[in-house]
Structure formats: C-alpha cells, structure tokens
Amino acid sequence: MPADPRDQVRAVPGRLPLLGHSVSLLRGPVKFLASLRSHGELVRLHLGPLPVYLVTTPELAWQILAVDADKFDKGIVFDKMRPLFGDGIATSNGEFNRRQRRMVLPAFSRGRIAGYAASTVTPLAARLADSWCHGQVVALDEELQDLALSVSGQTLFSTELGREVLDEIQRSIPIMLDYVLVRAFSSKVIEKLPIKANREFDAAAARLRKVIPDVIVNARADGGDHGDLLSTLLLATDEDTGEPMTDEQIHDEVITILTTGAETTAVALAWFFHEIGQHGDIERRFHAEVDEVLGGRPATFDDVPRLGYTQQIVNEVLRRNPPLILMRRTRETVDIAGVSLPPGTEVAVSQHTLHQDPRWFPDPARFDPDRWAPGAAALPKGAYIPFGAGARLCPGHVFAPIEITIAAATLAARWRLVPLPGKTVYPKITATMQPNRLPMTVIARHE
Ligand code: HEM
To answer: What domains, with CATH codes, occur in the chain?
Structure first.
C-alpha cells in the first residue's frame, strides 16, 4: 500500500491514548494553541481520536480560507450542528452556500447596519445602563449575553409579530449554546441518550422550530419592508432563478444568525470590560474619549468614527480573545506546505496561534490597543482574522465591532465597571471562549 502522505506531518508531542491532545487543550487552550507554531507550519494534533492538520502561518491560513476556499467544506463540527442550524449559511457547503450567502449578505450592508444601530443597539444599551444603580454588583457576562441576544432578536424581528418569538429566544438560545459543543464533539450514540444535556437541547430546539415558522408566514403575508433582517431575507431573490428563499431556508438562516451572532458579540463585550478593568491607564483614555464625544448621552451609529480609541480596544480584544478554532475538511486533494492532503482530511486554523505571533504582534501577551493606532504597519493577509477570511468571512464582521463600540461607550458614558477583588477570570473552553464569570461593581462616573 502506498504510504499516507500525511505521515510526514509532524505530530504535536504530548498525545494521550484516546484523549489525544484534548487534555492540553482543556488545561490551557490559549497557551497550547500559541505553542503549536514551534512545531512547524503544518502540524498534526488529535482532538480526542480525530487527527486534525493545523496550519500555523498567515500564508497557509489565507490559502485555506481564501485562495483554495472552494476545495474545502466546513467539516465535522458543522456537520454535527446541521440538526440545529439546518442548511443555513454557517453549515451549508459548495454552490448552495454561495447562493445563500449572496441572498443573506445584503442584510448586513452599511445602510441596514445604521438602521439596526438606531432601532436596537443604542436603545437597548441605554436601557441596560438605566437599569443599574451605584454600588450594585452585576454578573456582567450574563447581562451582556441578554443584551446581545435582545439586539440579535430585535434586529431580526422588529415588529409586533416577533414578540412571542423574542421571549422564546431569550429562553431557548442560551440553553442550546450551553450544549452545542458537547453535541459537536460527541458520538451519535451519546446524542441519543436521554441525559439532561440532550433533553434540554432537543426541547429548546423544538420550541424554536415551533414559534419561528409562524412569524415567517405572517411576515410574508404582511409583505412590507420593516427594515429588519427578516424583511431582507424575505425580499431576497436568487440571482439566477429569481426565486425567493423558501420558508424552511429562512427558518434555517434565522436560527443560524441567532446562534452565531449573539454569543460571539457578548463574549467580546465581556472581555472588553474585563481588560479595561485590569488596565487603569487604558480605562482612563477610554473614559476621556467617551466623555469628549458623548458628554454622558448614549452612543449612536454616527458617533462611531469619532470613537477611534474605543475601536482600537475592540481590535485588541478580538486579537486576544477570538473564537477557539476554525475547522475545514478537504473536498479534494489539496497541497499544503508541500504535503498532499487527501479528500476528507480535517484541517484547522486557530486565530489563537496566529494572533500570538511576535513577528506581527511584539510582546503578544501584552494587552495594547496602541498596536492599532492610526499609521500602524499593515499586517500580512491571514495574520489577524477574528472574523475568519475569504469565502466564509463572518457576515457580521462590520456590524459586530460597531455594536460593541456603541454598547461599550453607552455603558461607560455613565458607569465605571470595577472587577471584584479575588475573583479569577479565565476563558472557558467553548466555541467562543467566554469568561468563566465576570462579577463587577457598578460605580457612577458623574453626579
Ligand atoms: C465579535 C463578534 C463576532 C465574532 C468574533 C465572529 C466570528 C466569526 C468567525 C471566526 C466566523 C468564521 C467561521 C469559519 O470560518 O469557520 C464567523 C462566521 C459567521 N458569523 Fe460571526 N462573529 C461575530 C459576530 C457575528 C454577528 C453579529 C453575526 C450575525 C448577526 C454573525 C454571523 C455569522 C454567520 C452566519 C457565520 C457563518 C458564515 C459562513 O460559514 O459562511 N457573526 N463568525
């Protein structure tokens, strides 16, 4: 039998029988992923029993995500999520995915984003700021999850039609997100066991499958453009056939957007306040900018260009705290770093590896928003990819930083958030690397 070309790829040391490198990953994900560069530009690691070929340089990341994007599917994690997402744009592949993306992307145009900011982000962030009082201790991670879910929900469904569904989203999406990775990495047998994780996940998915279709049917009958995401999805037509999406397709895109958009944004916002709580000098510059631009009022879409330092903090938060890993699977033989990877090979890119590379980010462990100051040297393609890149670039990549900037500035216009002494905060190993907890004391900044 001819030798498997993949055998030439250097295996990452420390693999355990059955568990592979999962223990190293669980113990210290950021340190482990950052260390992989020292083993080569293409390395083999084992997630449980599954061999995964991970690239560690910007050039190879760019090859996989952009240049050779057509040669890859999303791979195993997304296959496992298909029962939840259906064939939405995060899980589908090939030509079908390209057509769906063309129909969904207009919902994320700048004009639409300005509308979402005015109708949801600014008022909901201002409402959260109004709900706090001086001296109160808040579970900030939870408050920000609620905020981001409300923003996602109301961005999708702006009309009265969506009221019932919004309540259900607040109840069901957090349950599904808690269990989604367990689902992704467990075998079919475990998925079917009547354990709590499966029961709660299935019940939440079923509740959403029950309420969302009614909203779609009613909104289609209504026919108007309400400026929300659902209207854009309903009005979109396929370039070639002129056909709109079916109700089933819209349903899958709605669930996909709800599950991919809210938690990622909430987690970035949580790390934003954690980081500035650790760095008094950065916090002072942030507060000075917020005071100068806003003078105590909530931030709007038009304020964003003037909140330049706030945006630098957002960039640095996304460098240090991106999602865990991007997975792909070869559809055909692909040559990577001189090795022919046959079809069906699981391949990965980790932003934690790329974003900790001292060639582009000197002293990478340091939290330094000035890396992003105007005039900073341009980075090579693939070096900084918090939203992925190429054919599957996150459709929320413009909206999310604007949402985070508006929400952070609106909260900081009135409140300082102070970490509780003695509480260690670290990333939990989930798809989004959320903080384990984030209790903070709310202190009035003015009056
Ligand atoms: C800070 C916030 C966010 C981060 C860090 C983030 C990150 C990412 C990343 C890394 C991917 C690429 C996954 C891959 O290539 O495998 C992705 C895809 C995606 N994101 Fe985001 N995202 C954020 C916010 C949002 C928002 C606000 C939305 C929608 C409202 C959204 C919707 C999606 C969807 C639908 C996909 C799948 C795209 C595809 O597979 O073609 N994301 N996101």
So the answer is: 5-444 (1.10.630.10)
